[in-house]
Amino acid sequence: MNRHWSSFLSSRRKPGGEPDYGLHVLVPSPRPASDTKNPTVDIVAIHGLNGDYLTTWTDKNSGVNWLVDILPICVAAYSRVMSFSYNSSLQFSKSAADVSTFAHQLLESLLAERKTKEERNRPVIFICHSLGGLVFKRAYLLADESQNYAGLRKKIKGVMFFGTPHRGSSVAGWATMAARVLAASSLRTSTNTRLSKDLEPGSEKLRYISESFRYRALRDRLQIVSCYETEKLGFMNTLVVDRESAVLELPEIETVIPVQGDHRSICRFLNVEANRFKPVAARIQELSESAVKSGWEEGPKPASKLDLKDMQEELVSVVTRLDTTDYAAHRARNPVAIRGTCQWVVEHPKFEGWLSSSETPLLWISGDPGCGKSVLASFLVERLTEMSKTTRLNVCYFFCKADDLAQSNPVRAIQSLLHQLLTQRSGLVTTADYYLRKDNLNLEDINNLWSMLVLLADRDINRRTICILDGIDECEPKSRKQLLGAISGFLHSEGLTVESQATNSSAIIEETGDLPLSGLKIIVTSRPENQIKVAFEKMPRATDLADDPLAVRAAMIRLRGEDETDAISQDVTTVIKSKINDLIESGLPPVLMETVQDKLIARADRTFLWVSLILGLLEEKVEAGASRRELDDVLNTREIFDIYTRLLESRSNSPRARKMLSIILAATRALTLDEISVALAVPPQNQSLLNQSRSPLQAGTLSMTDIEYDMVLPAENHVKSLCGHFVRIIREKVYLVHETAREFLLVLSSTSPKEQHRLFPAMGGSTSPVDANVREPAQVVLYQHSFRLIEARALLLEICVTYLYSLAQDLMRTGGSESTAAISTKPFLRYVAHSWTVHFRQIKHRLYSEDLWYFHGLCHPLFPAFKSWTEEYRPSDGHGYHYPTAVTDDAVQDFYITRCNLELRFARRLKNGVVPLRDQHHSDADSNDETNPEARAVLEHSSPDSDDVDEDEDGENDGDEDTNDDEDEDEDPLLTVHATRRRPIRLPSDKEGGSNSSLHGLYSNPTSLPNHRLPLRVDAAGMLSLDFAMKF
Fold first, then answer.
1. How does DSSP classify residue 22?
2. Which of 774, 752, 666, 668 is nearest to 957 (CA)?
3. Peptide bond just before 944 cis, omega within 30 deg
4. Which residues contact 350 (CB under 8 A, 6 or more apart)?
């Protein structure tokens, strides 16, 4: 059966002399395609670097190509033998292809060759030499990640590797192994720089492909035979791929055999009887038998139920951990673009240039407040999503807002982008899981998350990923700086390359004639702020742009919305006409509305927000009856803040309206109508938490029935009656009308404390328990710049805690069952459970040591409402914290206090300034206190919440507290709380009694004693105290 060597050479090239790359059928199937009773196995061979689809497998002396002359004899079935040819030459090659390109070509060639139904049902076995195994493994991963190749992947039954480096060894790491293979293949010369870079020493790609393949091969129970060389390669005098590197170490699915020969001769055989071939023949026969047996099944033999369940749980966990906020609801806060508007942006040369550019990942759309940036971003999400149905695009988005703790957090933003990407492209989940486990990545770290996003977008060679970040200027300042740094670093880096530049968005490639440099493209919208401008405009410049007038001249394109006066004016006009038509249809006089329309168009000045607010005012005026003069007065209002003043001046400046605005300002997220209805009905039971002259905090006697009795229904009507068009209700949630409304309300950071007190003295000095934070301020100002954020947070904290104590009292009265009043007010419980600890941390630098017991008692299992709020708190905790079980109540309290970071760095005593906090609750895991080992064990599994916002966000700092928990410079050591030191405490004697002033420290926080085994009791208000009536 031998053929002469020269007989092959004539078929190796096309008539013109060019290499004939692609899939070549060496041995056709001896059975017709219609013969389904005798199934055929497809065998595909892949050569290595500088190899050839014929010569790699052919003995030069005898001319025996064992794929043709020997292999069909060994296969326990009819077989079709094919050999894949690709441009693997490293010398004198003009190719810019890489491993992923070759893998993609292999898959496409197989699909083209397997045309009939019978052919598509054939099992497939691969035979790979050296780094041809890398091409196979990459192809297997691509097939697993793309639905286009799902059917083909299911038919891959086995693979035989000859001298393929799967990993580094104890003798030679990845760097040395890669260098050896390159040297053996290219004689240390190379001109294909892209392929060489894939395989250069230290290449992360080698490691990623091999590790990911191991995981998926085990999952699929892919049958593997790994052959390793036993002889040194002559001119190198070393084993190129030693045994340790050539073996995957998967004993469940892998067979390992040594083959006599060096790295080049290991895959060449003379005849079927050769001793060195017999072990290979036996394993090939086993592979073919197994393939035939399962040939007509839908996929590889699955992993065991237990293994598969574990792997599925791990992969589901990755996606679940990234699902941290309702990004779809955040987008829905914005109005839908009126038909005919926003079209200008997708037709803009800069947008088209960015979309088609291979060198520009970032498009920054800037615009002044109120010009419709968020509506425009939502329009782009819709338009690009429509485009993704016909082009290869992943579209992810996040809408940032300063009034929501999650929406202002860049960590949640990137997590949402990742969640959308993995949801759309489930094949990338295993890649994400691999890197999470390999590097033990922290999913709360901005840089880790951003790197993961870039990596996954690059790995998805079948699609371009576009991420839209709206309102990046509304992110919390400190973390916004980190996010801008991550984006800037991404654009600066030389790593704008992806695994495959040949398959990303074919339409873009056709338009530009070039290959895109990255799988990730970004659209950012924001105000034109200097911080963002500086971060983006220091990008490296693109190089060869002379031939393209629309080409981007930087790694970033800026589309200045503030310069697009004609386009935005046209959109504003369209919006005005649409809104006026709505008002006319609702019954308002057409002639009057047409006059209003003309004046609105003339005065709109390209500001959608102004138009929207003015229309709201006009609607109110017309409905109540108004003269043309009054309407003209409204239309003549030019400044946004003046409009806000008009919106609120028609409302009584009541404590309840100010209370609602304070709640909206302080809330960690938008409250629902049901939640805000309950919150408005809860009167604070203590004086202002920030009032230094107040008494220690105490639980009041407010019942759930009292709260229910004071709820005003319908809630929507009540909210609108308090603030009218100054607030918006979207999907049953209450928001301020715009971010500028928040700026209108809050005190300017430059305003001095004395000036604040002059303008609104009642904000900090009231002594009335109910009106402490909502009393009407001095009439110098009404609403503008009259709210201090720290006071709003203190108010909402007191409302939350008052609610919990009221619930506790209700549960004590009913014996633990929920009353009708508790059920009707329960919507507020979810917010309270997740947010009261956040509000505590936001103002804790202004609290006092005497206050701790009031808050810490909520964390003790003896607190009657403990189970109610902690059960609500647990389910959405996606950060992998372990909650304590089978430990003492005191240890459970330790866990929650530490988990929620309810410590004070300094103690403040009422009226006495700052003093050492000696009865602090905190107990670190490394404490030497042996009296409470259970608490220490629990604390080892806990860590403080990391979602705090800056304590002095409103620019306040009274100067008597340290707001930086990480700095200890120049501190008085007596003022520092040492978490591992506790003051010994003794039990009171009978003579001392409970009222002795010397026991003040004992009473101040009974749950913080170093000996947690002291008995506690719950009083009628739900508060915990030491039970001195019990005998010790």
1. E
2. 752
3. no
4. 363, 557, 558, 559
Does residue 834 contact residue 406 with C-beta atoms inside 8 Å? no
Surface-to-core class of residue 468, CB atoms within 10 Å of its CB (0-12 exposed, 13-18 middle, 19+ buried): buried
| CB-side neighbour CA atoms (13 Å) of 580 | 20
Contact 687, 766 (CB under 8 A): yes
Residue with tokens 């500088």: 50
**Cα gap 325→312, rounded to integer Å:** 23
Write out the H or E segment, with its range, that includes residue 27.
Answer: strand 22-27
C-alpha–C-alpha distance, residues 611 and 614, integer Å: 5
- pLDDT < 70: residue spans in the chain: 1-18, 31-38, 76-77, 90-97, 167-206, 235-236, 295-316, 438-439, 461-462, 492-518, 538-554, 605-606, 622-623, 626, 650-653, 749-781, 875-886, 905-1015, 1025-1032
For the record, the structure tokens of 624 come out as: 């109540």
Cα(702)–Cα(43) distance, rounded to whole angstroms? 79
CA 911 centroid distance within chain: 45
Instruction: Please give the helix or strand (H or E) that residue 429 lies within, else none.
Output: helix 429-439
One-character DSSP codes across 679-746: HHH---SSS-TT-TTSPPP------HHHHHHH--SSHHHHHHHHHGGGEEEETTEEEES-HHHHHHHB
Question: Starting from the edge strand earliest in sequence, which strands make up the sheet with 393-399, in order?
Answer: 393-399, 464-470, 520-526, 362-366, 556-560
Task: Annotate 344-355 with b (16+ C-beta within 10 A) or e (fewer).
Answer: ebeebebbebbb
Residue pair 39/77 in contact (Cβ under 8 Å)? The answer is yes
Contact between 84 and 44 (Cβ < 8 Å):
yes
Q: What is the pLDDT of residue 230?
A: 92
Distance between CA 944 and CA 210 in Å, rounded?
37
Sequence-ordered alpha helix ranges (H) in 563-639: 565-585, 590-603, 608-624, 628-635
Could you give the residue ranges of the DSSP H alpha helices within 874-984?
889-899, 933-939
Give which of 327, 93, 86, 262 is closest to 194, Cα–Cα: 93
How far apart (Å, rounded) are the C-alpha atoms in residues 130 and 267? 9
**Alpha-carbon gap, residue 832 to 873, rounded angstroms:** 9
CB 178 within 8 A of CB 203: yes
What pLDDT is attached to residue 757?
A: 43
CB 170 within 8 A of CB 244: yes
User: Residue 548 — left, alpha, or beta (φ > 0 → left; ψ -120 to 50 → alpha)?
Assistant: beta
Quick one: tokens of 451? 């790197």
User: Which one-letter amino acid corresponds to residue 110?
Assistant: L
pTM summary value: 0.58
Q: Sign of torsion, CA 189 193 197 199?
A: negative
**97 DSSP 8-state letter:** -
Q: How far is CA 713 from CA 674, 716, 718, in A?
A: 9, 8, 7
DSSP string, 847-880: --GGGHHHHHGGGSTTSTTHHHHHHHHSTT--S-
Q: Taking the chain, what is the end-to-end CA distance rounded to the nearest angstrom?
A: 98
Please state, in angstroms and as integers, the Cα–Cα distance from residue 743 to each residue in 730, 737, 787, following that order: 21, 11, 10
Q: Which residue, 248, 237, 263, is CA-closest to 169?
A: 248
Cα separation, 366 vs 344, in Å, equals 15
